[in-house]
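Something for you to look into today, if you have time. I want to see for myself how the chain folds. Leave the record below and I will have a look.
***
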Amino acid sequence: MLKNKVTELLKIEHPIIQAPMAGGVTTSELVSAVSNAGGLGMIGAGYMTPLQLQEQISEIKKLTPHSFGVNLFVPTKFHTKENEVKSANQLLNPIREKLNIPPNEHVEIPSFTDTIKKFDEQINVIIEEKVSICSFTFGLPSKELISKLKQHQMVLMGTATSVKEAIEIEKSGLDLVVVQGSEAGGHRGGFIHNGHKGLIGLMSLIPQVADNVKIPVIAAGGIMDGRGLKASICLGAQAVQMGTAFLTCIESGAHPIHKKSILNASDDETVVTRTFSGKWARGLINPFIENMKEHEKNLPEFPVQNSLTQDIRKASNSQNNKDFMSLWSGQSPRLAKNQSVANLIESIISEVKHI
């Protein structure tokens, strides 16, 4: 029952994909443990330098003989407005003071050219390292790039938050579509809609996408156990992609306070915010989100705001201060457990068999 086009294409035993969470969560231990347990481990490479990516791929190859994938952020044009940067910085300085870090008047913001250069170099790394699976978030790679990657027998996945985006992903020639419901933790992976509009829940999104595309559908957003996998399959998905469930696993690189916050959170504690990065993302509410909420509309876009808050996030991590951390989480934190990857996958499969 659990063998299908997705398990065949990705060469995996179970239709379970670990979401590629950027920012240090997807350690080599996490990715390889998922692949070793019959799922698909994914490197969240969005913020990694090409060298860091290369080193991690080599490390994972030593830890698992099975397939794993890499996720990249597709560069999108952004505008840096000096007055926005200045006013955002003024709002952030009192927080820096609380964390005993200097006011940051000269934040280095990557240019669009730098972003494209980094993306191209990351692509070169995955080709050189013969990575067999690549997924994309925040946009669609160009037709030329898709055909180049296909020449290297790579299986390609896109991320959609609406039927319209899923149709575009299929048209572009990608092999699989990850449909991300509004329950999902972290950043919204869409590229046509403003991430805060039309927040479509996963159970509504799966059947509508499945009826409109021929490529296999992978469900993401709030899925934590066998019930979520079974429900997704009943609605037309062929696999699930899970983030928060893996984030609280022993092998994950998430900050211990981040893990603890999710394990102690209730279902009504997550909000969608753009205060940390300039792009809408779901996480646990904290004083940073609350204080910045009234200014949310005027904050710079991604990746500008992300660069501005980097020193704050870094300091709050090293000071174990959850008030100013980006505590990304999906909407089902009550189902999160502190367990090994092997236990999580084993329990999902046995639960599916019992349903």
Remarks:
- The chain has one domain: 5-354.
- The chain is about 40% helix and 15% strand.
